[in-house]
Design a protein that fits this description.
Oligomer: single chain
Order of helices and strands: HHEHEHEEHEEEEHEE
CATH superfamily: Vaccinia Virus protein VP39
Helix content: 25-40%
Bound molecules: S-adenosylmethionine
Strand content: 25-35%
Strand order of the largest sheet: 3-2-1-4-5-10-9
Number of strands: 10
CATH topology: Rossmann fold
Number of domains: 1
Length: 214
């Protein structure tokens, strides 16, 4: 499953940003951008699964520094090719489950549209690894898709552990079986409420975002 996901995003790298041109998502993009800029201003941010740097470019203007990671060199190449007004941004290849190339602890984290690709039994280990790479008191923000009937790609199957999947087609015609769990407010709370402070989850029209402090 990990191999299929990696291959899919590698091959989608140059067409990825088209998802953000959809008219019905513009209001959510504006609201999430404002929230990220405000919450991450002045912070040393570790970004997980940054993809093509769409959100990095938006919030980084006000951050102290950004270490943006993704395990796919193809998406990092697109991210590095963009213009950033902040000179303190580095894009580094790393696997979110190990974060072995992160050598300095950050005091904030952003992971966009990534938690939905984590298998249910890997959520807790991922969160533990992430928190070990952050300073006490860090701000952590996740954002992801809500399932919107008639707009979201339908769920094609569910496995024995309750993970859900979509069949996605790239421009080259290849079809991919992609893990996509739509994380509810209840899921977010049960994953985190025992170990963090000031936990919030907010629904927009097509996206949700959640934040907390360590
Ligand atoms: C839906 S995209 C989100 C990209 C970006 N955060 C955004 O919101 O535009 C998911 C990203 O997760 C990356 N990814 C998937 N599994 C990963 C892993 N184990 N470690 C690091 N990155 C991963 C993919 O390469 C892809 O760029």
């Amino acid at each position: 499953m990990q191999t299929e996901l990696k291959e899919y995003y590698k091959n989608r790298a140059t067409e990825f940003d088209e998802i953000y041109t959809r008219p019905e998502r513009q209001q959510d993009i504006q609201q999430l951008t404002a929230f990220l800029k405000n919450s991450l201003a002045g912070k040393h941010v570790l970004e997980i699964a940054c993809g093509t740097g769409f959100w990095t470019q938006k919030y980084s203007t006000d951050a102290a520094s950004v270490l943006a990671t993704d395990y796919n060199e193809a998406v990092l190449q697109v991210a590095r090719s963009k213009d950033y007004s902040n000179p303190n941004i580095e894009f580094v290849a790393d696997d979110a489950y190990s974060l072995s190339n992160v050598s300095q602890k950050a005091n904030a984290c952003y992971a966009g549209f990534w938690l939905s690709h984590v298998e249910k039994n890997k959520l807790s280990p991922f969160i533990q690894t992430l928190h070990k790479n952050l300073e006490p008191g860090s701000t952590v923000i996740f954002a992801d898709n809500l399932y919107v009937e008639g707009n979201s790609t339908p769920i094609s199957r569910q496995d024995a552990e309750g993970n859900t999947y979509q069949t996605r087609t790239l421009k080259d015609g290849t079809r991919h079986d992609i893990l996509k769990n739509f994380i509810t407010e209840e899921d977010f709370h049960s994953l985190l409420s025992d170990s963090v402070k000031n936990l919030h989850y907010k629904k927009l029209g097509h996206f949700w975002y959640g934040c907390y402090e360590l």
